[in-house]
Amino acid sequence: MSEKTFGINGFTLKCIAMVCMFVDHLGAVLFPQYLVLRMIGRIAFPIYCFLLVEGAMHTRNIRKYELRLLAFALISELPFDLAFFGTISLGHQNVFFTLFLGIVVVDLAKQNKNKLIGILFFILMVIFAEFLNTDYGGAGIVFIYCFYLLYEKKIIKQGMFVLENFLLYGMGVQIYASLAALPMLLYNGKKGPSMKYFFYVFYPLHLFVLYFIIKIRY
């Protein structure tokens, strides 16, 4: 992807996604009566999917990337369960599992020139995400795979993303995820400051904080 001298870099996109995710979780856990918090929160996941594909296309070692996502999926499961369910739950897996399955799809698609094999792996991971009941489930894998397929076609990619939201979610709150198309269109192809572990650690850490707030509050 060619780089532009204007726009926003990957670091800024991560910050936008992180803030929106935090607002979303505040709404889900502490202030469910304020729907606007969930609307803002819908912006986070598409940006994470977008950046996941960017990372997969530029990383020197995609295996380390996959292992890092899997490690934080396992680390984050306890705080995820506590924050959202108040106890250990096997019925719903955190979003890192979705991102992990998504990057596996991208990895396998990059390795296999046979597009049919790539599509079969994609379908398998969609089914697996639904079976595990990961955050965003199979729909999340669909977003990631489409971002990969349309990697070089930026305008078409964002248009397809908006269309997917309508097709998959109709006019529910998830439709506000379409607003993520704007910051993604402004992406200039530059990485910006790294701080990658800060963004990884923030996810389980803020969930623990929310859980303790709930315990104190109630």
User: What structural class do you assign from the helix and strand content?
Assistant: mainly alpha
Rg calculated over all Cα atoms: 17 Å
Kindly state the number of beta strands.
Answer: 0
| Count of alpha and pi helical runs | 10
Percent of residues in β-strands:
under 5%
Percentage of residues in helical conformation: over 70%
Distance between the termini: 50 Å
Explain this structure:
By secondary structure, the chain is an all-alpha fold. It has one domain (10-217). It is 72% helix and 0% strand. It contains 10 helices and no strands. Helix 1 packs antiparallel against helix 2 (35-41) and helix 6 (115-132) packs antiparallel against helix 7. The chain is globular and about 55 Å long.
